[in-house]
UniProtKB/TrEMBL annotation, chain A:
Belongs to the complex I 24 kDa subunit family. Pfam families: 2Fe-2S_thioredx. Its cofactor is [2Fe-2S] cluster. InterPro entries: NADP_DH_HndA-like, NuoE-like, NuoE_dom, NuoE_N, Thioredoxin-like_sf. Keywords: 2Fe-2S, Iron, Iron-sulfur, Metal-binding. It comes from uncultured Desulfobacterium sp. One of its GO terms (molecular function) is metal ion binding. PROSITE patterns: COMPLEX1_24K. This is NADH-quinone oxidoreductase, E subunit. [2Fe-2S] cluster binds at residues 78, 83, 119, 123. Binds 1 [2Fe-2S] cluster. Signal peptide: none annotated.
UniProtKB/TrEMBL annotation, chain B:
The keyword Iron-sulfur applies. Keywords: 4Fe-4S, Iron, Iron-sulfur, Metal-binding, Oxidoreductase. Residues 576-605, 606-633 form the 4Fe-4S ferredoxin-type domain. One of its GO terms (molecular function) is NADH dehydrogenase (ubiquinone) activity. InterPro entries: 4Fe4S_Fe-S-bd, 4Fe4S_Fe_S_CS, NADH-UbQ_OxRdtase_51kDa_CS, Nuo51_FMN-bd, Nuo51_FMN-bd_sf, Nuop51_4Fe4S-bd, Nuop51_4Fe4S-bd_sf, Thioredoxin-like_sf. Pfam families: 2Fe-2S_thioredx (PF01257), Complex1_51K (PF01512), Fer4 (PF00037), NADH_4Fe-4S (PF10589). The gene is nuoF. Its EC number is 1.6.5.11. Belongs to the complex I 51 kDa subunit family. SMART domains: NADH_4Fe-4S. This is NADH-quinone oxidoreductase subunit F.
Amino acid sequence: MKEQAETIDEILDRYPGEPRYLISLLQDIQAEHGYISREAMTLVCGHTGVPLSRAWAASTFYKSFSVEPRGEHTIKVCLGTACHLKGGTRLAEGLERELGVKSGCTTKDLRFSLDTVNCLGACALAPVVVLDEEYLPNTNSKKVKQSIKRLDAE
Amino acid sequence: MTQQSTAEKLDQSRLNSTQDLLSLTESIRGRRDEKRPVIIVCHGTGCLANGSPNVAEALRQAIKEAGIAAKVVPQIKTTGCHGFCSRGPLVIMQPAGIFYQRVQPDDAQEIIQATLVEGRPVERLLYEDTKTGERIIHDYEIPFYKHQQRIVLKNIGKIDPTDIYDTIGAGGYLALAKVLSRMSPADVVSAIETSGLRGRGGAGFPTGRKWASAVAASKKRPGPVYVVVNGDEGDPGAFMDRTVMEGDPHAVLEGLIIGAYAVGSNQGFMYVRAEYPLAIKHLNIAIEQARELGLLGKNILGSGFDFDVEIARGAGAFVCGESTALFTSIEGRAGEPRPKYIRSVEEGLWGRPTVLNNVETWANVPLIIERGADWYKNIGVPHSTGTKVFSLVGKIANVGLVEVPMGIPLNRLIEEIGGGTPGAGRFKAVQTGGPSGGCLPYELGDVPVDFDSLTKAGSMMGSGGMIVMDEHDCVVDVARYFLRFLEEESCGKCLPCRLGLKAMLEFLNRFARGEGSLEDLAELENLAKAVQDGSLCALGGSAPNPVLTTIRYFRDEYEAHIKEKRCPAGVCKDLISYIIDPEKCTGCGACARSCPQGCITGEKKKPHNLDPAQCIRCGMCLDSCKFSAVVVR
């Protein structure tokens, strides 16, 4: 735990202690720790002078923040309009069945988090799924499953 | 997904006057060898995802292996998006302008050998006209490009966005030099007013008038004024702003600096959505490079004008595209809108006068300054001047980004530039303006695409997403899709939006299940109008548009769901069934293996059966069948 507090101190040092940097701080913590822990949030509040209630409100308002630990790998299914028309919703439902979790949730073994996103702006590739950083263009349930299996075996 | 800069390093100290900038422009242009081959490899998001960095690497390798004499070593340049995303990865050979599409790393050797060494194009990589089947060599002859008028996008796909010298060589910052050396702030405001430029973010408010209001407000209450770029492009199916920010970040920055000068601002912000990491990266590089050259910061080009800019990253909330919510987010809080009894141009960021314009609007500013308001005014139609960038997506042959003059008829945009819907059919409907816009039917194909005509038709310009649908798309499902999106993105502050959208969605869910009555349909229309009138911000106010326009133009399809319990497009799950066509089924067993319910059975090599009682209509069998034997009824 102590180790984590130190890196959070490093993140805090990047921004002046003003309320307007709350979101930037939460973003950096999210990026580096994968989620915003209670401890981290308390430290951010101490630094910026923002009440905990407001930090909580921001952390749960924005989609890119998570207040719970996330999976090792993130699967993002694009549900932009083009992807929706080309079967993105079906893909997401299939993955929910496959992983046994709802969209926005993480598997119990913390291996995978399943998310749906509203548009990646890669509409020519519809339907598109992003595994961590890798784009799977014009994909289908079968191909996504194979890619997940490959990731799981690594 | 990162882009390596292919910039050639130049040693340049700070520019201390507009004359210094002009000399730099001249020297960059003078140093260019017009005959030297340049191989452009598109590194827009679409091409990157299709592996364009590997193509660039393979080309580099192939050049090395071909041992082309050092004097004519081609330069490989990675650029922003060319717009023709469905054909990526794209490679363009300059100066000849040979356009190669769907290039794979394996093609690199042949490209270098044929095009550079032997001087002939590689036939099989050229674009094939979908109608005539003819191979087209040059990009400017391809119908997708031929009918466009690219002014905002003029540099994108030509310059390396991570290299400020490339931008300057292409004329970047000349408008800023003109402003600082020859124009007063009032001249700039009046030029923008004369040009007729209207906000590209959706509402179409006259930009010049907005700037003038900010100037007036700051005179009344002296203190800081802010200029802000709205790069929170949240509409699904829209990626114009991302392309501009990624492909020509200096255009946005230059526009912003000019705007700041005009309204007397010393601090600007760029609010960019978190989903666009490459845009954030390129803007950051651009800001840093501009600062180093003295185009940003203290005493810009020795004019005595100070201005600097900061990037604020969004954190994933659609409502933050709304002005007051965006300001709240920059201020470091949950991005909820507030009532606009006082306009945000008077009391915006931290309660101070603030000019907020969309990315594309800012990118238009340098063009207007450089080429004149009168030139600009003559593009487009009288009340919607200039061009507009659209993203064409959905059931359209040429998925991608296009720029056309305002007022172009809808069907010209879709048929001539977009290549129509794939297959024999015509398009059924087009959703313009994203979730806040409306759904226009084929019959309205001759409607001119400008702010006022689209509003009259019940839709809106919005930010420029155009989602094309064909007969396999159900309008009830599409309306439901947008409502679900908006209901989820509603910030929850005001009741009409928070609960009204939920109730509207409930109606649509019922219709999609074949339930509900015609009275419900009337009730839905009433509720939609109430949400339109009663919501606090534009997100709620425009949310019913997709529902209202689909009812207006496709009432019979709603009635088919309600009265006949039938989804004519074969989309709504509860109203369709999957069957296996015994004529086409080869008995390969792929569907049976993929079925999570185990409800497909049959002997190997014999037609299979699907038990409709157990089928959950998940569509896995449809995806897995290679013989189109799974059919939706």
